[in-house]
Amino acid sequence: MSARQDRAVAAEAPVDEPMSKARLRLWLRFLKASRMIEARLRDRLRAEFATTLPRFDVMAALSRYEAGLKMSELSGVLRVSNGNVTGIVDRLAEEGHVVRVPVPGDRRAALVRLTAKGRAEFARQAAAHEAWIDEMLGDFGAAEAASVIRRLDALVAELGAKGVS
Amino acid sequence: MSARQDRAVAAEAPVDEPMSKARLRLWLRFLKASRMIEARLRDRLRAEFATTLPRFDVMAALSRYEAGLKMSELSGVLRVSNGNVTGIVDRLAEEGHVVRVPVPGDRRAALVRLTAKGRAEFARQAAAHEAWIDEMLGDFGAAEAASVIRRLDALVAELGAKGVS
DNA sequence: CAAAAATATTTTATGCTTGAAATAAAATCC
DNA sequence: GGATTTTATTTCAAGCATAAAATATTTTTG
To answer: Mean of the pLDDT values across residues B29-57?
Structure first.
């Protein structure tokens, strides 16, 4: 079979293909899986909780810091731009899920904290989120999950060392 | 926690932890790696080619279809909304990288095709893109890449079967 | 202390993304 | 053949994301 099939559909790797092509295919699969999962999370958050992944992410970060986070700390933890967080926190504040409280002694800064309502709402969302992931990744058993996590940790470390922040 | 949550340091799994927590950790690592790679691709496309990942994706799709694609086919291939593609194609057309050509016999539709300029530009971008991926995933050898690709294909199939499109 | 530098945050301009509504042009059906 | 439905695409409103500029407030420093 000399058919050259370079379509999007899975093909066997040509025997003499350069390694870079194999890695490119690996990346494309990786990205595809990641986007599928993310898309479903977005859909469900919207359908079941009328919220979004970015808002969920902000609440997740705040839920780990009882004392609250400054805007700049929040954008640091989430690794997104400052201006970005401003808008998301604005919306969460309108919904009553977070509050901005002044930092005594520094009138520039503000702490963002979950409200009681926000904390309760996030608990519900997080439980659902975990169940969705559990369903989607149900094929991964304990041993495989652990080994993939190790492999991904190594990759992330490697990427970090190569200057990808 | 999907996104950007980075509980920076890897924690050992508690012995009695429910499986869902292990899968959640797996997802968080997966997402983190994916976002790091994507962020670097975006940065480099911007710095070296003054373009974006969405534009690159559109050109990549068109480069596989010499004859061109209708707008709806394009959004189907890329799995994004119709309205989304309209704007990206508008910008690529302004840059002279693509053209909309009328479909004879159907005045509603238009074929989008790479121009000669667009084809040449994409060739340069694609070569650089492949090299960036090759560098970032350099730790993956042929055997490991192949096995991970198989695993991801299985995951994607499973997700598809579960209704994640 | 006053000028300069650094820090914390918001604003602005631009682009990506979606779902839903609007337009327009076939295709189908009575 | 004219009304209805379907198909192809764009427009719209809202939200997310970034980099760069603007504000405001501390901190440093000469």
So the answer is: 94
Out of B19, B137, B165, the one facing A142 most closely (by C-beta) is B19
Structure letter (DSSP) for residue A51: -
Which backbone phi and psi does A134 adopt, to 5 degrees?
A: -60, -40
Contacts of B51 (CB under 8 A, 6+ apart): B45, B125
Distance, CA of A71 to CA of B146 (rounded, Å): 43
Q: Considering only CA atoms, which of B90, B71, B94, B93 is closest in space to residue B82?
A: B71
C-alpha distances (whole Å) from A14 to each of A3, A11, A34, B153 are: 11, 8, 26, 18
Report in angstroms the alpha-carbon separations of A19 from B13, B64, B85, B87.
Answer: 34, 21, 32, 35
The pLDDT value recorded for residue B18 is: 87
Where residue B5 falls (left for φ over 0; alpha for ψ -120 to 50; beta otherwise) is beta
What percent of chain A has a predicted confidence (pLDDT) above 70?
89
- The whole-number pLDDT of residue A150 equals 96
CA distance linking residue B104 with residue B60, whole number of Å: 25
Is the pLDDT confidence value at B143 over 90?
Answer: yes
Among B2, B26, B136, the residue with its CB nearest the CB of A148 is: B26
Measured from Cα to the C1' atom, the residue closest to C17 is B84
Does A128 contact chain B (CB < 8 Å)? no
Which parts of chain A register pLDDT below 50? 1-10
Q: From its phi and psi, is residue B79 left (phi > 0), alpha (psi between -120 and 50) or beta?
A: left
User: At B160, is the pLDDT very low, low, confident or very high (cuts 50, 70, 90)?
Assistant: confident
pLDDT tens digits, one per residue of B98-136 = 999 999 999 999 999 999 999 999 999 999 999 999 999
pTM over 0.90: no
Q: Which B residues, 26 through 65, put their C-beta within 8 Å of a C-beta on chain A? A: 26-27, 29-34, 36-40, 64
Q: Is B8 on the interface with A (CB under 8 A)?
A: no
Is A101 an interface residue toward B (CB < 8 Å)?
no
